[in-house]
Amino acid sequence: MRITSPAVTIKDIWDALTADYGAAGTYGLLVETNLDAPVSGAKADLTTLETRLSAARATALDELLAANLPADIAAIPIAPALAASWTAALATALGAYTAAKAAFLDVAISSRLATAAYTAERGTDSAALASAWTAALATILGNFSAARIAKLDNLDGKISEATQWYFVASDTLEKSSDATTTSTSDTYELKKTETYNPTPTYCIAESELRVKFDLEGTSTAGSAFGRIYINGVAVGIEREVVGAGWTTFSEDFPGIAIGDTIELWQKRSSSDTSYAKNFRIYADIKSSFTQPSW
Q: Is the Cβ–Cβ distance between 28 and 37 less than 8 Å?
C-alpha cells in the first residue's frame, strides 16, 4: 500500500496498531513491519514531485498566482452576443469531438501518418497516369497535322479579312432626312446631323460616302449657302444659290470612320433666306474578300 493522503496514512497507522497479530507486546514490531511499505511509497512520491516541480516551474506558478490571471481574464470586456456565440460554438465542437474520435486521431497520428509513404500517392507520380497522358498527347499531335495547321492559318486570315467590310460611294440610298430647314443667319449654323454607326461595328473599316442635299434662296438680292461638315469641321465645298428654285448638290467623302458625324450647315447673305432639304447619304457595302471565280 502507498500513502496518498494524510487520511490514508492515519488509517494505515491505526490498522497496524490495532491488528490482531498476537500479544500486545508485539504491536510495536507490527507497526514497524506493516508501515514499511506505505512509508517507502510516500517517499517515492515525494521524490517524483520534487523532481517535476523544479525551481523554474515553481517560480512560474508563483508569477501566475501573483498576476491573478483568472480575475484579469474575467475582466476582459466581451459583448454578450459574442460570448454567447463562442459558448455555443464551443459546445458544438466539444459535442462533435467525442472521446472515440479523439482516440481515433491519436491512433492515426501515432501509427498511420508517421509511416505513410506520401510521395507514392501523388497523382503526378503515378506511372499509369503519366502513361495515359502521354498516349492522349500523342493522339492529339497525330490528329493535328501540318495540313490542318495550314487550314487554321488560312482561316485566321479570313477572319482578319472580315474586319475589312466597308462602304463605297454610290447612288444606293442608306440614310435620309428630307424635311426642309431654313437659316437667316449670316454665319454658318448646324441644321442636320447623321452619325456613321453601321452594325456590326467590328467589321466596318473606313468608308467613302456620297452626300446630297437640295438648296434654294428667296430672291436675287442675296444668296443661300450650304456646306457639309465632318465632326464639326468644314470639309465639303461651299454651295451657293441665288434666288428661288431648288438645286441638288452631291459630293463624295472618303475616310469616314465609325462614330464620325456628317453634318449639313447653312447660312444666308443680305436679306435672303437659305432653304435646304433632302439631306441624304448614299453608299454600297463592299468587302476585301477575294471573290471566287470559275
A: no
